[in-house]
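4.2 Preliminary Data

To establish feasibility before requesting continued support, the project team ran the inverse folding procedure on a target of 160 residues. The structure was first converted into the token representation described in Section 3, and no sequence information of any kind was made available to the design step. The complete token record follows.
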């Protein structure tokens, strides 16, 4: 028996050099977020603003039907890290991402897309990127060879 198919979309956006008016005014940012949720069928149920006293940084979360939109705002840097998640069929998370880039007037954005809920094999769950780090084996022969090579490089005159 196959598990029920679940598909959710997660979009992470790093927005750089955002508009000063948009990031410095918590109420304006909250209004822009609510307008986007309404326009792109995210169906916001509640908006929460978290800001520590004396701090300029703040977060705004829109709790939505089968998802959320969260903005982490750094006014001094003009930077916003946004997360959009939805598994609601009528929602348009990609449209919401385009709206946020435009509404917060950013110069540059880095966007990462992730499909959630893939119930494929456990091998499908590995990340797409791999590290290019090569490990040195701890055997006597390899250690001697590496030591000899390093010694040669260190003792070789620079002109050669």
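Position-by-position output of the design step:
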């Amino acid at each position: 028996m196959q598990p029920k198919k679940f598909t959710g979309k997660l979009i992470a956006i790093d927005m750089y050099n955002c508009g000063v008016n948009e990031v410095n005014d918590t109420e304006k940012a909250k209004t822009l977020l609510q307008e986007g949720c309404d326009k792109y069928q995210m169906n916001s149920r509640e908006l929460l603003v978290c800001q520590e006293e004396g701090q300029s940084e703040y977060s705004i979360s829109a709790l939505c039907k089968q998802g959320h939109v969260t903005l982490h705002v750094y006014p001094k840097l003009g930077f916003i890290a946004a997360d959009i998640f939805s598994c609601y069929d009528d929602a348009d998370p990609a449209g919401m991402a385009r709206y946020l880039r435009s509404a917060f007037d950013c110069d540059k954005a880095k966007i990462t897309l992730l499909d959630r809920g893939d119930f494929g094999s456990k091998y499908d769950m590995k990340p797409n990127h791999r590290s290019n780090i090569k490990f040195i084996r701890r055997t006597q022969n390899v250690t001697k060879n590496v030591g000899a090579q390093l010694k040669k490089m260190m003792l070789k005159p620079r002109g050669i």
